[in-house]
TrEMBL record:
Domain FAD-binding, chain residue ranges per copy: 295-358
Protein name: FAD-dependent monooxygenase
Keyword Disulfide bond: no
Protein keywords: Monooxygenase, Oxidoreductase
Coiled coil: none
Organism: Aquariibacter albus
Length: 404
């Protein structure tokens, strides 16, 4: 229960993941009263979280503004910069990127997923203007950041179009017998996509660690998730061809592996009226403004194939865009409620185009490399090689991934 003296929230945020926590921090930094649905306290999980995030420059800037990045980077082995990236096709095609060529500090930063969640949660505990609540409460704007499987959006009429890839992503942590030197590696081998993300871990750079994200036909991914360590290591060695040296599982226990189905998802609309009267705030409202509105962010609005590692980057870009729209309105249009449809439409205009473009790009790449016919394979690998010799095109691609 919130104290009686606490102001009524302008936004209620539903979502306990990184996107929801980052949004609560971003709005609180503007002085907006926010309710964050933390739910009941959960017992600590005995299962390790093997996931890693590849954060781009825009996401890093947001986390720096939220004063979270410093807390992450001060922890040994939690953040690893990617200096180079090599992309290998299935018929000899290759494409290479380097931070030096892009005149950037890094192409991306690989971040421990659990550490990021802990850093955001810690920051929230000390953030003013944030009320942690167990259940959604009345507010003009209900920000839905519940992820791809959140039930609230569907219950309130947010129709989402889904296309299943028939694949699943397998994630775990690996150790190699030689240093990664900040080099990420990605392989397209129809119909699989395998990414090795350099990740130091607690042992530091000498440990030559990697985060694995391997997209496979669903039955194969689930079989490898449950396979003995030796079988999974043999499959990895065969798939990578030794490009990263000899790979071993950092933890042979199958509990240290994660597996989830892959799909392409887009919301038909990103905001609408909240149908539950109990969540409508009391008091007068402006003409043409609903008593309360819902708004989608992150995977609740869009899900893309993980081959480009852009899922969380898109969600954090949603956070930055909504914070900017509401912040600008507080300065220039202070009379508008946080759920004014003009403001919500501005947010959608800023984000619908970039997310749709990323969805088309990732889906197009997957569709290009999914067929196994020799002629198609030869053409796509030839295209990779040609692109590697076109610096302007490579710079443009890298700029899209870096997020500006």
């Amino acid at each position: 229960m919130k104290p009686r003296s606490a102001p009524e929230p302008a936004v209620c945020i539903q979502g306990r993941g990184a996107v929801g926590m980052a949004l609560a921090l971003a709005l609180a930094h503007q002085g907006l009263p926010v309710a964050w649905v933390a739910g009941a306290a959960r017992p600590p999980s005995s299962r390790p979280d093997p996931r890693t995030y590849a954060l781009n420059a825009a996401s890093r800037r947001l986390l720096q503004a939220l004063r979270v990045w410093e807390a992450l980077s001060e922890q040994p082995g939690v953040v690893t910069p990617v200096r180079e990236m090599a992309v290998h096709g299935d018929r000899g095609g290759q494409l290479a990127f380097s931070a030096w060529q892009q005149r950037q500090e890094a192409l991306a930063w690989i971040v421990d997923a659990a550490a990021l969640d802990r850093a955001l949660a810690t920051a929230l505990r000390y953030a003013p203007h944030v009320q942690a609540v167990e259940q959604p409460c009345a507010a003009p704007l209900q920000a839905l950041c519940e992820g791809r499987d959140g039930e609230t959006a569907a219950r309130w009429g947010a129709r989402r179009i889904r296309s299943d890839y028939g694949q699943a992503a397998l994630a775990t942590r690996l150790q190699a017998d030689r240093p990664h030197r900040g080099r990420a590696w990605q392989s397209f081998a129809s119909p699989a996509v395998l990414a090795l993300l350099p990740f130091d871990g607690a042992a530091g750079p000498a440990a030559a660690g990697y985060g694995l994200v391997w997209s496979l036909p669903q039955a194969r991914a689930e079989a490898l998730r449950d396979a003995p360590a030796e079988a999974l290591e043999a499959a990895l060695q065969d798939a990578t061809g030794g490009v990263a040296g000899t790979l071993r599982l950092a933890d042979p226990d199958p509990a240290a592996r994660a597996c989830w189905p892959l799909r392409l998802v887009r919301a038909e609309r990103w905001h609408g009226p909240v149908p539950e009267a109990a969540l409508h705030p009391a008091g007068p409202r402006a003409p043409g403004v609903d008593p309360a509105s819902w708004l989608l962010l992150g995977d609740a609005a869009h899900v893309v194939h993980p081959l480009a590692g852009q899922g969380l980057n898109l969600g954090l870009a949603d956070v930055a865009a909504l914070a900017a729209v509401l912040g600008e309105a507080r300065v220039r249009e202070a009379w508008r409620a946080t759920n004014d449809p003009r403001l919500l439409d501005r947010y959608v205009r800023r984000r619908a185009g970039p997310t749709a473009a990323m969805a088309r790009a990732t889906d197009g790449l997957w569709q290009l490399f999914a067929p196994s016919q020799p002629v198609v394979a030869g053409l796509r690998n030839l295209g990779l090689g040609l692109l590697d010799h076109l610096p302007p095109a490579k710079r443009w691609l890298a700029a899209q991934a870096l997020g500006g």
